Amino acid sequence: MTPPVEPDTQRIPVRYWIWLLGAAVSLLGDYTMTFAVGWSASQYGGRVAGLVLLLMVAPRAVLLLIGGAIGDRFGAPRVLLASCVAMFVLTAALVPASLEFGEPVWLLIVTSFGLGVIEAFFLPSYRAMPRLLVPTSVVPRALASLQVLGVLFAVCGTAIGGLVVGWAGLKAASGLNAITFLIMIATLLVIRGTTQQHGATGTKIMRSIGDGLKVAFGNPLTRTLLIVMLIAYGLLQPMDGLILPLLARDHGWSASTAALLLSCRALGVGLIALRIMAKGAFPRPGLVAPFGLIIAGLGLFGLSELEALPLAIGSAMVSGIGVGLFTGHLLPLLMNSVEKEYQSRLQSVVVLCQSSAVVIMNPLLGTFADLNAIGITGVCLGVGIASALLGVIALNRPTFRNATV
Q1: Which domains does the chain have, with CATH numbers?
Q2: Are 77 and 185 in contact (CB under 8 A)?
Q3: Per residue in 283-302, pLDDT tens?
Q4: Is the pTM of this model over 0.85?
């Protein structure tokens, strides 16, 4: 990699903070809308709810590579603006529709499918924006600020969504989401023209997808980072939705205690993100990221072996610190491993890898957790050992170990 030409102490441009403010508001709307659709579908039973949520994930997964190619062809800011306009139109139209028809299954299916399609174009361009708004050397700090934002809404965003939905149902969530994306549209218009040059309109879509995959998996560093990320996300991402809730039930803890464990894990991630945002990434990110996996593995080992609640809370925070060290150093390496004109396509591959890992590992780990010979503590122990081993393997890969931003 070419060494950075700017010092890490360089300030993050004001345009990035303006964009981040709009992103924060839209994230609130996104969490609220996702909760509202799932909650409204749950009244029809688990099978219908599962179908509705699947129709949100499936089109996103199918169209992600196309969304990334279009983002790089026309420029991430333009595609992001168009996606926000589409999201505003969809959710604004849902307000009168839900007032007229209520919350029938067909309306939930149409809404879920529409959200999935829009997100396939929104997410790659959204995640490419930091690289286009800040100098290369401060990308880790910019991504850390975005991660802090994610942690904040992971802790309180769904709760706000629950209050809104409890107050007036799907129509209230739709109205709030429309307002948040209207603010995001205004934000994008304010910073229009301030991003670095991006987009090449002369490339055909299928060829653009092929070029993006070639860059992602043809570059030895990018390929190595993607493989490690794919395995790590498959191991660690199920912690929130699967491992920690099941572990809490196994110990006879309440739902509020399970939520406390999740919050402490998120707090661990947030502490590292705050440190990176304030002072920059640690030196030798290719060395720090694998140690993050080892630390996350130690936290999971503690969760599997320690039954006292205070020790479990400490172990959850340790696992979060490990996850924060890993993602906070791997994602900037990944983003800076390719040129700016491939950013949206790279992010589409990243999101696809992350989604695929969770889709595969959630049912697999859930099946193991139901086996008497293994149980959830065995799953937790196995994931911890696998995470630590992955960190050791990554440390022994010179391509990974020696990578710098």
Answers
A1: 14-202 (1.20.1250.20), 206-401 (1.20.1250.20)
A2: no
A3: 888 899 999 999 999 999 99
A4: no
